[in-house]
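User: Hey, my collaborator sent me this sequence without any context and asked if I could get a structure. I don't really work with proteins. Can you help?
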Amino acid sequence: MKRLLSWSVLSPLLAIFAILVIWQLAVGIFEIEAWMLPSPVQIIQEGIEIYPRIIDHSISTILIALGGFAIGVSVGLVLAVALHLVPQARQSIYPLMVLSQNVPIIALAPLLVLWFGFGALPKILIITLVVFFPIAVSLIDGFRQTNPELLNYMRMIGAGRRQIFFKLEWPSALPYFFSGLKISATYSVMGAVIAEWLGAQQGLGVFMTVASSAFRTDQVFVSIFVIMLISLVLFGFILLLEKWLTPWNQDKKGSGTDD
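Assistant: No problem. I've predicted the 3D structure and written it out in structure-token form, which is a compact way to encode the shape of the chain:
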């Protein structure tokens, strides 16, 4: 088990290292101009040089992403529970949830800025819109996966609706909830960057736009790598939280691996 775990951590790191080495060699062999495709070494050097600036922009993006993420998770959670407890409403509201994800964010964002100004509100609304859907859908599917035999047993012994929900349905759906959280975590950072493209004074989206217009491709890649790092850190935090709050699910995964 430990060998498999260590290899699962080591293998993606080796793959990333191999990609960077091939990238570095390709830039040197084909003599690609830095404004078109900088090498990893040039990107790292530029990142060190602009470190104070990139930190300020990163903090701004992180705060907006976390705010929208928290609200989006809350909305998705409440909506999923409501649709589960009131099945009659699911047929009418669920299609509207799907339709909300078919609205292009790049087209909706200017309207939100027009309606609510250039403050934090339109940015948080954009992030909320992209975050709530994976949470709601994952939870609804999780509630549907409740063991029917255990459900019938609890009803037979006289358990009430509240007891069934908190003792059986919610623990059963919790792994699905964390699956939605992992997706939403990366979506929240992406949503924050998109929101900053369309009206902000600070943030990685603003930094990327300015660098792109100035043909500073190295700075664009620096911002891309920072965005990826923020997403990975947030993803890793949720993964640790999942292991802590769903130990029974981790035991199932462990027994499956050992087999």
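In plain terms: The domain at 48-258 is CATH 1.10.3720.10 (MetI-like fold). You can pass these tokens on to your collaborator as they are.
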